[in-house]
Specification:
The chain is an all-alpha fold. It has six helices and no strands.
């Protein structure tokens, strides 16, 4: 993101850190980290948009719940974002704690997580730009 935004700078800075790290870890084949970092980047962007809209964020790691909050606040959330959110949310826990579930973190899954993260980030940035113009 560049220029002024309605999104809180510190939140975007941290989200971008996780976004960059996810891409870096993809190149290093650390696939569990990619999935965790993609989830974190999406979460921080969604919470930044919540703060921009209403001044607070919901304390949850469930990305679908965060999207629902934004929808309740008046934004139109595309249905496909819920699918992306549902796919990313479990990696907040599963990627950090080995042995919890039989998940295979491979390149295909990591690339999918980055794709879902990017869909959510693009939507948040687009919504923030609309808010900035309003």
């Amino acid at each position: 993101m560049s220029g002024k935004t309605v999104l809180p700078e510190e939140w975007v800075e941290r989200a971008e850190f996780f976004r960059r790290e996810a891409k870096r870890h993809l190149g290093e084949h650390v696939y569990w980290a990619v999935c965790f970092e993609a989830q974190q980047a999406a979460e921080l962007y969604l919470k930044a948009l919540q703060i921009a809209l209403v001044g607070v964020y919901e304390f949850t790691h469930d990305l679908s719940r965060l999207l629902g909050f934004l929808e309740d606040a008046g934004l139109k959330v595309p249905r496909e974002l819920y699918a992306a959110a549902d796919s990313l949310t479990p990696h907040y826990t599963m990627a950090r704690y080995p042995g919890r579930k039989p998940v295979v973190y491979d390149e295909k899954m990591a690339r999918r997580c980055i794709e879902y993260m990017e869909k959510i980030v693009r939507w948040v940035v687009d919504e923030a730009n609309r808010l900035k113009k309003a």
